[in-house]
Structure prediction request, 589 residues.
Amino acid sequence: MELVPARVEVVVAGAGGRDRVAHSALLRRGPIRVGPLEVDVEVGDEGGTSWSVANRADATVRVRAVAVVFDVVDAPGPLRMFRHGYQSWSHTGVAVFGVDRDPSRATGSLRMVRGVHHADADVTRPEELRSEWVTVLQSDGEPPELVGFDGGDRHDGTFRLRDGDAGSPELWAEAFLGGAALAPGEARRLHRVLRERGQEVGSAPELLESWASAVGASAGARVTAPYQVGWCSWYHYFHDVREADLRANLALADDWPFDVFQLDDGFQAAIGDWLQTNERFPSTVDELATAIVSEGRTPGLWIAPFLAAPNSEIATRHPDWLARTPDGEPLPGMFNPPWGGGRDGFMWALDTTHPEVAEHLERTARSLVDAGYRYLKLDFTFAPSFEGVWHDPAATPAQRVRRGYDAVRRGTGEDVFLLGCGVPLSNVVGVVDANRIGPDVAPSWDREADRDGLVGYEDTLPSTRQALHATCARSFQHRRLWLNDPDCLMLRSDETDLSEAAAATWERAVALSGGMALVSDDLALLDDRARRRLDEVVALGRESDAASRAGITPRCEDVLRHADACELSAVDRHLVVEPASGRSTLERD
Prediction:
């Protein structure tokens, strides 16, 4: 199999707003005029492609995407593609070209849901497979080839595997700018496209590890934070958590090895009003942190910093801080009915390109740190990537996300632990200490019944099975791009549909991953056996994490062999999972 650079494609916004105008030109040396744009592409001898785009028109041009198209030649047999998901919960796995379909093709898929899980919310071509940020291609009997962008803070990167006009596949390496406005004469450097060919048929894991190391090094990845062990309120209490629940678990924490005690969603007066508590929390945010500190734990807090409920103080006092739809209405950034808010569960997206919003985010983060919180979980942070009218029309979706995170980091300072969640992963290397790398775990092996509106994206629903697949498939990112957060353990024996075998499988996967080990059960319901199980997870997790610090991360050997990865190796142990049942074996190599 060989990737041969063939041409350049650009898509700009037409006069009709969402109308798309495409232009194409054959690839050649030197700057290439493609419609109103000039694209300068340099394909290096070692497989890397450096490029930039400039506006050569007399008026501002809104650039949706720029792509270098590679012909895929001499690819015998089925062509397999590693599809990396866009954000924390987006599905990651392998697909077969000509057999599998992009989830956006599902009848009834919603644009908002597609926008949550892809840089580009448009429906793909019928045959198209796509991957975000990085991909690996492999045909039968051939070594794999990795193609990946070297960053994601300036723009998103999407790989599209399509049918070419000549009858063979094409791979589009697409810099997605999302309609960013380029002024006349303005030029932008695009993220470099890296390519590396494997040495043997089974070398896909090594390619992913090599790519992640290169990206992390160039972006200043934050990978030195300690291994995290903690407690989180979410998976037992959910939105209904009370201050009494937090304090009751805190009183029992002396018998547990928790460093962090994190209060999750449910404390806030409203989404967006993070410094005020609701009626279930008589104490202030500051007093809650003091209570946690007094027990010798690090206070942690969940916030969704880029969202605001319609009835929140921030939205009602500062309507000019909201991103807008083309019709001038507040731009929805999330739909979650349990949050309320006055519009049936729709939350508004804060405009992270507005200077006053950036100041607000920085000020809020600083206030929480001053209150004592040294661990912040930032959730649903894809919201600034949605299409809309933003204060700075020149910002790409990736830049909008990154500006929000940078503002929070300025407020916290450098020594506070930031955990990203629901975040476009490529946008935040170098600003977060850890990232959720899979969908929510659940007290069940398989996902719950399909929810309305998630047609095509059922694999993103909470389930232990899907969390485990993501933990395996994204294992190469740990301590290279950030600390991996596989999500919480399930130690409970009550209020769960997980079999003992499936619960043990999840514990083994979390431990082998070297990622964070958080408990999210009511401690009053856990017995000595649960405590011993946590001790085993932490001991193996620390061992695996220590190896990752030395550059030997856990490895998913079947990342290109199975539709859902289910094998994980680390520190001379090998985990093999039966996906249907959740049973597993853990053997020493």
In short: Residues 229-305+361-560 form a domain with the TIM Barrel fold (CATH 3.20.20.70). Residues 361 and 487 are 25 Å apart (CA to CA). The longest strand covers residues 169-182. The two ends are 33 Å apart (CA to CA).
